[in-house]
Amino acid sequence: MNLNLARILVVDDDDVMRTFVVNSLRRLGIQSIEVAADGVAALRAMVAFKPDLVLTDIHMQPMDGLAFVRQLRGHANPFVKNMKVIFMSADASTATLQDAMPLGTFGYIVKPPRIDTLKAKLELALK
Q: Other C-beta atoms within 10 Å of 11: how many?
């Protein structure tokens, strides 16, 4: 898929980081972007926005990124259940990586994301 046509949902509870990621996506030519501040809001946005991919933080309240992706994977709707996800987090600890990777995601980006890393992960996930 051409990145210019991608629909991306950015989930992060930090306003500054959300803005940074959205601006980075726009620099890559992506214009169709929605944002959510936590997993609960992201679940609502999934149905209305119908993204091609979700970039989600891990540590958020009231629903963190791990719980959000577990909800996706257990969802009855196949579109939601099979959603492509890339985790973003400042937490690069082994324990967090071990919790995140079995959830069927397309990677893990340490925040703040570098534009080249973000582009490479998006292109791989959206092939």
A: 30
- Rg of the chain in Å (alpha carbons): 13
Its pTM stands at 0.94
Contact 107, 17 (CB under 8 A): no
Residue 103 phi, psi dihedral angles, 5° rounding: -85, 10
Angle between helices 39-49 and 65-73 (to 10 degrees): 40
Residue labelled with tokens 């890339």: 86
Express each pLDDT in 29-50 by its tens digit.
Answer: 999 999 999 999 999 999 899 9
What class does CATH assign to 3-125? alpha beta
Q: Which two tokens stand for residue 111?
A: 């925040």
Q: Which is nearest to 28 in space by CA: 111, 117, 119?
A: 119
Domain residue limits, the chain: 3-125
Q: For the chain, where are the E strands, in sequence order?
A: 7-11, 32-36, 53-57, 84-89, 108-110
d(CA 99, CA 119): 24
